[in-house]
Amino acid sequence: MKPSPKTILVRCPNWVGDLVMATPVFACLRSNFPEARIVACMRRHLRGILEDSPWIDEFIYGDDKSVRGFFTLVRQVRQARPELTLVMTNSSWTFLPLWLAGASPAYGYRHRFPRRYLITGGPEPRRDDNGVRRVPMLDYYLELCRFLNLKLDENPRPVLFAAPELQKAGDEYLARHGVRPEDRVIGLNPGARFGSSKCWPPEHFARLADLLQANLPCKILLLVGPREEEIARRIREASHTELVDTASDPVDLALLKPLIRRCSLLVTNDTGPRHYAVAFNVPVVVIMGPTDPRYTGANLEKTAILRRNIDCSPCHLKVCPQDHRCMTEITPEMVLAEAIRLLECNCPHEAGNVPQTLEPPAPGADRAGRA
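Now predict its structure.
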């Protein structure tokens, strides 16, 4: 590797949450190579996450699933002429167009054939008696920087940016839906692109909206992504609370930033927007079922994780083949208690397993104060 590469190419993760957790890598690269041109290679729809950051000079869109997109990517990488390439994806397929374009030296994890024999170098995955050790993805990505002997921040954490124009668009969006500057806003994120196994039941979100409105007067911002309109419809029909529903006025991954930053609290499944909240220092309650908390076990100072330790979890299946009780047994009253605690004290805490003795509000409390 050249001491001061002129152009650095980064093949970014493909998932929203993973990309947010990888942002300390970009901060590290910019800090160590302040004069370099940093090129981010990613899925096109993810660009809004990193837009407005001080790290990225150019974007290349990694559409490597079609033949045309694959060879377009090869050409774009070749034109970029990187002198250092960092590969944060794990598959051989995502590395192949970079290799064909002559992106060398290229560093990434060496744990899959044939990639481990094509890549220039990189760390081996950490292992224990059970195989590959499950570590926070933030640390997993930063290990690439450690392998290159780059200087790291003492307390690396995800960071996102919103330019004044984007912030103004977010403010105008909320004003258009009746949210005033003095209103408390609580966000609900009921979907998950990964699959239905990550989703808390819509009826639970509807009940939670009613409980929040009764106990913490606020505006409820219902954040739904593409193809999640049915989830939003079910929540609207089951709730007695007026919701600011983004299904009727869609929000992309860029506009999502100022909306989540405006929230006093976010309640979400274990999916990308939870990491937006961490990046903007917004308290967040995460309802977690089929996924392993060790992958996201970093920067939890304002995060409460609600999960049940049952025999089949974590399974990492996209669709639950059984009764989905890892999610359904977490009740709206349990989530409300964590929401209130986070808003009142904002103290370091990880809820871990759901408290079994939590007392729900008195019957009818969710309708207090409403005619």
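The longest strand covers residues 37-42.
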